[in-house]
């Protein structure tokens, strides 16, 4: 029986579909939404800005809040409360690291732009291949 579900959300429409899928498919389970803010890199504007701020933890939480607000709105439609986790770093690694605490991981296939599809599609593939628990990839 599925009791704990980890849903990886990045703010994309497909990640919202993943949350809806988890809420529909596992109505009695505890749902936790994980948002991973990219690790600091000169090529990643938001992450670099967070790394350079005086309050890196606060910046990470602030970056994740719009995703969590939307996740709560969706959960409210199902009259369900959700838990949230925010991490910084590489999305696939963070999802895999948290997966062992859950019965299943649910995530979208990719985000909207070509760059996002390549990056997040790769995240889904990596999580699918390396997760210690079953993974549902939602299209």
UniProtKB/TrEMBL annotation:
SUPFAM superfamilies: Adenine nucleotide alpha hydrolases-like. It comes from the Archaea. Residues 1-139 form the UspA domain. Belongs to the universal stress protein A family. PANTHER family: STRESS RESPONSE PROTEIN NHAX, UNIVERSAL STRESS PROTEIN. This is Universal stress protein. It comes from Halorubrum ruber. The lineage of its organism: Archaea, Methanobacteriati, Methanobacteriota, Stenosarchaea group, Halobacteria.
